[in-house]
C-alpha cells in the first residue's frame, strides 16, 4: 500500500468543515463577542444538541461559562473575509461589533444576538460541558433555528446553488462548495 | 429582520460536512464493518481526539462497544456512490466487504482495517464515551494518520485541486468543493 504515516496533527484530515460564528454576551450583557469556530457540530437529534469545542485559554471560553447560552451564525461565502477577521483579534482587547461594524439580529429564545448577515442562525442553551484534552466541549440544546427565506429545500438541505457556505480547510485557507457536483443518492440506516 | 423560525431538525443547517467511513471489527475479528458517518469531528489537539456520534440502535454501536477501536477512512469524490451505498445496508445483515468488494488496508497500531481507496485514514482507540440525547459520542484517541503521498500541502491542508473530498449535505444529497474558490486569509487565536 502506498500510504505513509503522518503525525496526528501534521495533516488537517478532517477538513473542510463549515465555519460557524459563535456569539456570546459578556457578564454585563453590554458587549456581545463573536468568534469563528470550525470544531463544532451536531451531537443528537432528540433533543437537538450541538457541540462547540473551545480552548480554555480563550476569552470566549470564559464568556461561555458565565453566559450559559450562545448563538450560532452561518454566513454566506461573500462574507468569508469578515468571518476570518473575527478570528484575528480577541474579544478581550477589542469590541468586535464596533471594530467590524457588525449588524446584529435579536434572538427570540436566548438573549445573545446573532449576526444579521447570517443565512441561518441557531439559539442554544448550554446543557452540559466536558473536558476533552486541551478543549472544552460546550453542549448546547438548540432552542430555535432562524433562517432566511428559501435558503433550505423542502427536504431540509441547503440550496447551495443559491447560498454558498463558508468552509474552513485548516491553516489560513477557506473555500466553498461546487453546486454543480450535487448528486442525489440512496441513503438509509446502518 | 427577514428571518423565519424553523423547528430544530427541519433544516440541516450544520451541513455540508465531510463524510468519513468508520471501520470496526466484529467480536471474533472475522468481519470488519464499514459505515459512513457525518456526525464526526475533532475534539482536541493534545492529545489528538476525534469524536464519532452513533445511534445506540445501530449495529455499529454494538461493534464499537465491543471493539474499543475504530478506523476512519476518507474517500475521494469519485467514490461517492460507494460511500453512500455503505449506509444503505446494515452490517447486521450483510457482509459489506464481500457485498461491495471492498479492498482493505492493514492498520499499524489498531487491528481494524481501513479502506484501501482512502486518501487519508486514521487509527483510533476509544478513550471514553458519552451519551448525548439519542446518540453516543465515542471519543477516539488518534494513534496514527496514514495518507497517500502528496495529498496534503506543507501547511497540512488538503490539496483540494488534486483530491476532492466527499461532503454530505443532508437527506440523500452529496457534493464536493470548488477548488477554484480557495482563498488564503489571516487567521489567529480568539
TrEMBL record, chains A, B:
One family name in Pfam for this protein: Flavin_Reduct
Lineage start: Bacteria, Pseudomonadati, Acidobacteriota, Thermoanaerobaculia, Thermoanaerobaculales
Protein name, as recorded: Flavin reductase like domain-containing protein
Similarity annotation: Belongs to the flavoredoxin family.
Keywords: Flavoprotein
PANTHER family reported in the protein's UniProt record: FLAVOREDOXIN, FLAVOREDOXIN-RELATED-RELATED
Names of required cofactors: FMN
Gene3D superfamilies in the record: Electron Transport, Fmn-binding Protein, Chain A (2.30.110.10)
Flavin reductase like domain mapped to chain residues: 13-160
GO MF, one example: FMN binding
SUPFAM superfamilies membership: FMN-binding split barrel
Organism: Thermoanaerobaculum aquaticum
